[in-house]
From TrEMBL:
Protein name: Polyketide cyclase / dehydrase and lipid transport
Pfam families given in the database record: Polyketide_cyc2 (PF10604)
Source organism of this protein record: Mycolicibacterium chubuense (strain NBB4) (Mycobacterium chubuense)
InterPro entries: Polyketide_cyclase/dehydratase, START-like_dom_sf
Amino acid sequence: MTRISRSRAIRAEPSAVWGVLADFGALSDWADGVDHSCLLRRSEDGPHVGIARRIQSGRTTFIETITDYRPPTLLGYDIAGVPRDLAVANRWNVQPAAAGTTTVTLTSTVHLTPHPLRLISERVFARLLAKRSDALLDSLTRRCEECHDA
């Protein structure tokens, strides 16, 4: 298993950052490179473990299912739609920092079924995910800081 984390300091209150992340079906409203997103199942009491969203990015479709939901700090989900030998998950951690600032960490976990090149393949895929994580964090920062400055 390979884990890779990326963090950002965002000039916004933790509740504002959490509000963007917790609107689970609205990823395409703020994330660059996501053409469409929607909830596959709705819940009367908002997002929680088991809720899934569909993500369309170009011709690729992913299904992300919440596995850990602890407002206002942790959001974890598994990602389906990657090559079948891979298990991929993301985990967002939202923590208050200095006044008016929030530290957000996105950790991606990659696990490949056993085969001779497993560790190398996991690391290569994790590096690709790290680039995507940087883009997601950049988009989240832009969205939250625009709202904060408005």
